[in-house]
Specification:
The chain is an alpha+beta fold. It folds into three domains: 88 residues; 74 residues; 51 residues, no CATH class. The strands form two sheets. Strands 3-4-5 form a three-stranded antiparallel β-sheet, with no helix packed on it.
Length: 233
């Protein structure tokens, strides 16, 4: 039994069920307004809704009330089956089968969860770290692109590991979004003697930024930096 997965599945099922009911309600209103009343058309709409929510529709019974001549639909109703309430008891429960009889339940679960981490690693590489698409045509440049992506992943996973040890289980995408508002800018200007100056300054970190930096044991060493980069003479 996984409490975290139970909550995740409950949230996902609740969202799907909400959207399923919204779509059925829209169809009910369309039938009531006589926008859609032919049996074939209504049945087609019901079929599309069922196909859109396969994990939810089996727990609902959708009925059509037909006209006396059996050619038109007067109304559409739906009932929730009791079996769905019984199924919710098993939410978050898993049965894992393995041939390793000498492993404990905790070891089996830990081994199974490595699959989730592998899937997460590939997702991070392809999205957050830009491993693909690869636009390079020369093999050496392609190798360098892949090497930098893997190197960046090592840094990413190190950050996630340090945060988990401190009780923060957020993923990199969440951390990245949280820290994206703390920026470092370069101010470029030319003085009266035509010298070009670059001044690098960091914004003031917010409370959320400071909490993450504290968990990582990181101090803001990127203080104001002033460089004279050239002259316009």
């Amino acid at each position: 039994m996984s409490v975290g997965r139970e909550r995740k599945e409950q949230a996902m099922n609740a969202l799907k069920e909400k959207r399923f009911i919204e779509d059925i309600t829209k169809l009910q209103n369309s039938v009531a307004k006589k926008n859609v009343i032919l049996i074939d058309k209504v049945a087609e709409r019901i079929g599309r809704i069922k196909g859109r929510y396969p994990t939810i529709n089996r727990y609902y019974e959708i009925k059509m009330e037909l006209s006396d001549d059996q050619k038109q639909v007067r109304s559409v109703t739906w009932d929730k089956k009791i079996i769905m309430e019984k199924r919710s008891i098993l939410t978050g429960c898993y049965v894992i089968e393995t041939s390793h009889e000498n492993m404990t339940a905790q070891e089996i679960w830990h081994q199974y969860m490595t699959l989730t981490r592998v899937e997460s690693a590939f997702r991070d590489l392809k999205t957050e770290l830009g491993m693909r698409p690869v636009y390079h045509q020369l093999s050496e440049r392609t190798k360098a692109h892949l090497f930098i992506s893997v190197l960046a992943y090592h840094l990413l996973i190190s950050i996630e590991h340090q945060l988990r040890e401190k009780g923060d289980h957020r993923e990199w995408s969440t951390i990245k979004k949280e820290l994206s508002t703390h920026q470092r800018n370069t101010i470029i200007f030319t003085d009266s003697e035509q010298h070009i100056h670059h001044i690098r300054v960091s914004g003031t970190p917010e409370v959320a930024h400071k909490e993450i930096y504290k968990l990582l044991g990181t101090r803001d060493k990127l203080r104001r930096k002033h460089n004279l980069v050239g002259s316009r003479k």
